[in-house]
Amino acid sequence: MLQLKNIGKQFDQKVVLDGIHLDIQAGEIVSLLGPSGSGKTTLLNIILGLTTMDRGKIIFNGEDLTNVPMKRRGFNIVFQDYALFPHLNAYDNIVYGLRNKKGTVTEKELQDYIEFLGLKPHLTKKIGELSGGQKQRVALARTLVTKPKLLLLDEPLSALDGVIKESIKQRIQSIAKEFKLTTIIVTHDPEEALTLSDKILIINEGTIAQFGTPHEIINKPSNDFVEEFILKQLQIKRQNIYHLFGDKNA
């Protein structure tokens, strides 16, 4: 379990996060959702250890990680731009993170990850020869082979569309289930969060607007901001979204 206790952060005089309390169960997919500048990316970076917080605690499986540096937390992230090395082929990108982690995975485990993500036909291709979805899968594989205790994803679907986006959604859900891997996703897209996550944390101006399941957020928005941000942005796709979560008035 990941527990965030009273997380607060300021940049200069601007309060970016204020009083964030959150419990995330093992194996859950949780989306951090909110408009630009709401604080969601800062919260992701605090969990990772990339950004320090001004107050609060981070507890993971009973261990206080508040002052533990990023390299010792055992978490890993897939960045929005994938951060792949263009001069290396797909396979060399996947194993790059293992250079300083000898013995992290066996050869069989490595091949299982590659097979699981459907990358076997693409291993010798340079990054420039891959599609957006293939690049995303390489980035996921490179992260998974390090066996992270927590998987963080920064806007994982923003550069994808159509069938490719749906395929990556399914991969992320399969990863969380198959490896019982707690996964935290930053997104600005309500539809993405609603169809991908077990729970959603909606952040507005650095505070929690609502934390709940997609069904709860669709059917019982906690305040006007949630109603506006979630429902009105989805008006065009209203029937599909409400159908998924059982709103009787849709």
Automatic annotation (TrEMBL):
Q: ABC transporter domain: which residues?
A: 2-230
UniProt keywords (A-Z) are:
ATP-binding, Nucleotide-binding, Transport
Which InterPro entries did the record assign? Answer: AAA+_ATPase, ABC_SmlMolc_Importer, ABC_transporter-like_ATP-bd, ABC_transporter-like_CS, P-loop_NTPase
Q: Does the keyword Nucleotide-binding apply?
A: yes
Query: In the record, what terms sit under GO molecular function?
Result: ATP binding
Top-level division of the source organism's lineage: Bacteria
Q: Which Pfam families does the record match to this protein?
A: ABC_tran
Write the protein's name.
ABC transporter ATP-binding protein
Q: Recall the taxonomic lineage recorded for the source organism.
A: Bacteria, Bacillati, Bacillota, Bacilli, Bacillales
